[in-house]
Amino acid sequence: MYEPDVTIITATSNIVEKGQADDFTLQVNLIDKQSYPYIEHLVVDNASTDGTQDLLKEYKNGGYISFYSEPDNGKFDAYNKALVRAKGKYVSFISCDDFYHDITCVQDIVSIMEQNEADFCFFNSYCCHPDGYVFPFTPAVYNAFQVSPFPRQAVFFRRETLEEIKGFDSKFKLLADYDLTIRLFLNEYNGIYYPKNVVTYKLGDRVMKHPTQVEAESKHIFYKNYRALHPMTDDVLDRMIKFSEMPRPLLEKLAEKFPPDDKELFYEMYEEMYNMRTNAQKELRAQERRNR
Known about the structure:
Number of helices: 11
Oligomer: single chain
Shape: globular
Order of helices and strands: EHEHEHEEHEEEHHEHHHHH
Helix content: 40-55%
Mean pLDDT: 95
Structural class: alpha/beta
Low-confidence stretches: none
Distance between the termini: 69 Å
Strand content: 15-25%
């Protein structure tokens, strides 16, 4: 019986100096314990100079990983480079401090993707917040055109699908994974939900520390992906960023990307997100007034 290969891609950059070596060790060992035997763990290193390459060589010599090291222009550039070298039919991308806590997940995900001829498979996850708490992240696919519906770490992709859509747009340094997700939904690729929690990931503090860049990239991503569907004026973009609000004509065109039976739920989830963001803005303004 044919069993497709899976490539798990990790990007590293001076992880010894950053104190991420122990997290990476946990990741490597848990991938090694996966019940699915046909896994390539491909590590792409950003020409580290702190001892990271020595650590990677140890794991390579032990048969745990394959790796190469060369300068890159950020993790999404590194992922694109690794994608060219990947051998698997299916591919996932996890950061050096993420891990699959379910050791049967790869086998289960491959099985559901094969059965459904899926282009991508998304699933539940645990997110570790920089403030020290952990919360579950359940995919919100009907909000995919407003906010990121799931983290990059909680998706497996068919490699040929990623090649068709040209991988990550690496000009986005923080949100290229969300841009890719929007393109998957806009082009109506076949996504399948796997209803288990299998991965633990750390919320990137770069996103937390650079809200202005996040807003700028979000506007660019919305403009890039929706301008063929509706005029994306500054006012439209501002309201999308602040309230997750979309003009009705655009919303109706995006609803067409979901099956007819799901349209009512799509509109319902859109309104729920819009109301939540609107109320949050009202509370923020009220708090600002109280602090004056």
